[in-house]
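We were asked to recover a plausible sequence for a given structure. The inputs and outputs are reproduced exactly as logged, with field labels preserved.

PROBLEM: sequence recovery
POSITIONS: 228
GIVEN STRUCTURE:
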């Protein structure tokens, strides 16, 4: 299925907490991959010790910083998308930060005009599938409703997952606020399970326990880079 919506992941300057370590809150897959490669370099460049704490998916990260609003522990939040950033700003849990490197970002549409978010990555939401199980994947939302795909799709919980929330917003964008619930009432037969976050969904796909999942159009490039 071709991408129809963009998901922009954002690096946020959190409410500063005075401590010896720079405390970073993020989502699991960032902590276990990108952070492992970049944090040691950052520590050496700026002579600082970084403590990375992960809390599942981005939705859970946001819930954590809201819970700690009166006594914040994080200095930096990594991984909120546009929808979650808006919620964080409304909850007044962030400080504005203007990165001196912001001019390196060519696409103005990726920048946060409010000054609370610094974009570091973006990805297009897509349905990805196991090529060993599927030869001809569905190419539209309507095709996903076909009985052929009964209990084959893994989706992420929009309450805890930024990926799941982005997919929900995508369906609202396609079907409108008046009709998206009707679409989901039919889609439920195609859903294998709902996971708390992206990691759990990807594990099911990788293990061959799921045919398809809601993910990102760049997954193929990532898999090629990591596994060849």
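RECOVERED SEQUENCE:
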């Amino acid at each position: 299925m071709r991408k129809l919506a963009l998901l922009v992941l954002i690096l946020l300057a959190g409410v500063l907490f005075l401590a010896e370590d720079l405390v970073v809150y993020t989502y699991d897959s960032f902590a276990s991959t990108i952070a492992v490669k970049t944090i040691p370099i950052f520590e050496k460049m700026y002579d600082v010790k970084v403590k990375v704490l992960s809390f599942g998916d981005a939705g859970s990260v946001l819930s954590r910083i809201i819970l700690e609003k009166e006594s914040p522990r994080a200095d930096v939040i990594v991984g909120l998308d546009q929808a979650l950033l808006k919620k964080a700003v409304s909850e007044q849990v962030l400080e504005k930060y203007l990165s001196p490197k912001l001019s390196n970002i060519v696409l103005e549409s990726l920048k946060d005009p409010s000054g609370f978010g610094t974009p570091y990555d973006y990805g297009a939401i897509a349905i990805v599938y196991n090529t060993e199980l599927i030869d001809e994947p569905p190419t539209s939302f309507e095709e996903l409703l076909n009985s052929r795909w009964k209990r084959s799709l893994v989706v992420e919980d929009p309450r805890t997952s930024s990926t799941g929330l982005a997919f929900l917003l995508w369906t609202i964008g396609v079907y409108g606020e008046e009709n998206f619930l009707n679409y989901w009432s039919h889609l439920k037969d195609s859903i294998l399970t709902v996971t708390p976050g992206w990691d759990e969904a990807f594990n099911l796909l990788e293990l061959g326990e799921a045919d398809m999942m809601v993910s990102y159009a760049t997954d193929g490039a990532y898999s090629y880079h990591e596994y060849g």
